[in-house]
Design goal:
four-stranded antiparallel β-sheet; 9 strands; mainly beta; Jelly Rolls; 119 residues
Length: 119
């Protein structure tokens, strides 16, 4: 068992309602994700949601993560999520951190981190 953690930053440009940030699991290891967190800044009054897409036992699935709002943070709305999870990703597959918002106006940014281990 080898500890694993990574961080992905996603920019949603004008005209984009959703965007992915991805990384590849090493070809000789399975990834076990135990904790995930994220934050996002969108122009007020937009809303943001978070997800994770991974492949386990050959089947790709999108997991929907909770989204909490803090309210306005300057001129932007601030959203976050965090929690213990138990997701698996097959060796050599892509893990995708997904961010969506409800309006494509102006630029938005999101950051997501996850930790777990490789086996």
């Amino acid at each position: 068992m080898v500890p694993f953690q990574t961080h992905v930053e996603v920019t949603l440009v004008v005209g984009t309602e959703g965007q992915n940030g991805s990384f590849q699991v090493p070809k000789d290891k399975r990834l076990v994700i135990e904790y995930i967190s994220g934050e996002g800044f969108v122009p007020a009054p937009q809303k943001m949601i978070f997800g994770l897409i991974c492949t386990a036992s050959g089947k790709q699935v999108r997991h929907y993560l909770g989204s909490n709002t803090v309210g306005n943070f300057g001129s932007q709305s601030y959203f976050w999520n965090s929690g213990m999870v138990k997701f698996y990703a097959d060796p050599g597959t892509m893990v995708t951190l997904r961010v969506d918002r409800d309006h494509p106006e102006k630029e938005a940014i999101a950051r997501m981190s996850l930790s777990g281990y490789l086996e």
